[in-house]
Amino acid sequence: MSNDENARGGLPAQMRRGVLEYCVMALLRDDERYGFELVRELAQVDGMVTSEGTIYPLLSRLRRDGLVETRWRESPSGPPRRYYRLTGPGVRALERFRQEWARFRATVDQFIEEERSEPIS
Amino acid sequence: MNPSADELVQQYLRGLERELRGLPRSRRSELLEEVREHIAAALAEMKSPSAADVRTLLERMGDPAEIAAEAGSRIAHRPARAGLVEVGALVLLPLGGLLLPVVGWFAGVILLWASSAWSSRDKLIGTFLVPGGLALPVFALFMVGGETCAGVEVRDGRTGALVQANEQCSGGPSTSVEVLYFGGIIAAVVLTLGSAMYLALKLRRSSSTAQPV
To answer: Structure pTM?
Structure first.
């Protein structure tokens, strides 16, 4: 873990990467989007995407794992775009993550909040 | 878009292509195309991007090494199949030529290249080490010869009875050539079996758990 990752607020890169794909999947649950759109939305949240180019291998992996499907659509400006959308298994995987995440967040909060409420003697 | 900005983009894409060299060609070109289009779309949104703008954009795209790492990081999670295609290739490459000359080996080559379990480099090794598989050395084994032998009969001049019968052989390869010849046959057998084992090992390795990034 490098020093400047700690400077970014203490969230290790591995953790960001781990949740990033679920954030991508969440964005694809109700709407289909193409890569550029996805990156733009994710980039709105500071620090969510450190390397925009990595979205594409991530999407490719989701596709290979059967969690997203794609289709081509004509674009008004330029070559056809590849649109991504969650598959059935993808929706289920996302739901499972959501429950896990809620539990995880509650657990971490417990520790973090406890830390804060303990007076330092 | 001024030339230096375009050159920056080309440089970046070239660097990315280099980093992606470990990927199968279809994945590599697909990824490159997606990144290229992304950059183009981003630039199209800017009114007249300066070289500085392009630099910022490329930085946001990320280090090509990082993109390549992301692309390769779960490559082992692919259901690496020792499926029918792979088993067929492993069997036909060494032995196919023995069952059905040329065609049998060639079928093995087709299966080899059709499979997605091996990299292009491995496929090249499987094809050219040794072309024809075991058929070639086995065939060569039966080709040994080239000497002509003639029977020589010595008969008694008077009675015509057979006194001696010899076989005289002449021609044919000298000893050193024979040694080389058989050496070559053995080498071909070793190389053929070796490359088949290499492919089998590569198959097993790619089906193990994910490699750490």
So the answer is: 0.55
